[in-house]
Give the backbone structure.
Amino acid sequence: MSAPEGPGKSFGLATRLVAAGREQPGRGGGVNPPIQRASTLLFPDVESLYGEERRSYGLDGMEAHDALARALIDIEGGAGAQLVPSGLAAITMALMAALRPGGEVLVTDSAYGPTRRFCDGVLAASGVATRYYDPRIGAGIAELLGPRTCAIVLESPGSLTFEVQDIPAITAAAKAAGVVTILDNTWSAGVYLKPFDLCVDYSIQALTKYQAGHADVLLGAILARTPELYEQARQTAKAFGVGVGSAEDAYLCLRGLRTMPLRLEHQSAAGLKIARWLEARPEVAEVLHPALPSSQDHALWARDFTGAAGLFGVVLKPLETASLDRALAEMAHFSMGFSWGGFESLIIPCNQQLRRTATPWAKGPLLRLSIGLEDPDDLIADLAVLLAKIAFK
Ligand SMILES: *Cc1c(COP(=O)(O)O)cnc(C)c1O
């Protein structure tokens, strides 16, 4: 969906998200878009069958998809948004849109694990090389750019380790070299960071996380800075036939968006309260949360972000792993599971899935917390019990 023409963004986010995606004229009175199940769309004559209609087949998405895409553009800006069935598909399709034969991609060493798997597997087998770089490289990225470089993948803060990247320094170097930049912007939900103000070309959202918000939908989006970049992403997703996810999922995600500002406000504040509590505990070596003034990346975060998600990391002091594993399984409110951004709090040990090649990660044991909608004091009590059960060395 291309960015609609319309009035400026003078209203607050919560106000805009009540109205977003509801501009569709000519409906029969429902507040929400219809959920249409369709492969085949019918046309009255040959001229319109082969005409320029944007929507000609179910794979292009139906009304609920269009409404969701418009709402995403309303949040984050950009010239267009392409929906795809998962956050991971958004990353892989954006990469495919930017690649050239024999090219090379630069990927932050803090990238989401499956992004790495795609680069090391599918791209490597297709003759596209990947070079991982230090997430804190900043303007130094210029030295890594060569004639083969076609894309830079950024993720800020990084998955599991939460380094904040100097996005404008990296996009400036990329722009000078004609290289496409792809930012995994899932942590900010598109709310706390505006990538197109920082000259990012593609912003990736795993809508599975805060947008859907209820641990029951898989969906992704590629938002593009210019109409040309949007068209490239759209044609790539179309060529691969990945589709746009189901109408039910688009509908649920749009429903999630209505309450996202409220959920984010709670999860952000609760996350910071819990991070501060953890920081003061003797069992904790470091809290990886860029909104804490003690964070190495705090100044960079404060420059570019307007808020923090409820997702952060904790490095504990040396401990007996078996005691941690036992204590995690016995928590009252935190559950263990992948994904995040839902209404329920999650906790996972991360060392098992950390992969670094450019900048070794020596800290640990590392936990990742996704703060849900519970009372933060109950979550703190749960964490106090966890820490008390661990056998520290
Ligand atoms: C979860 C996640 C994704 C992938 O989203 P899915 O919808 O689960 O495929 C991408 N990037 C980040 C940072 C994520 O946390």
The longest strand covers residues 149-155.
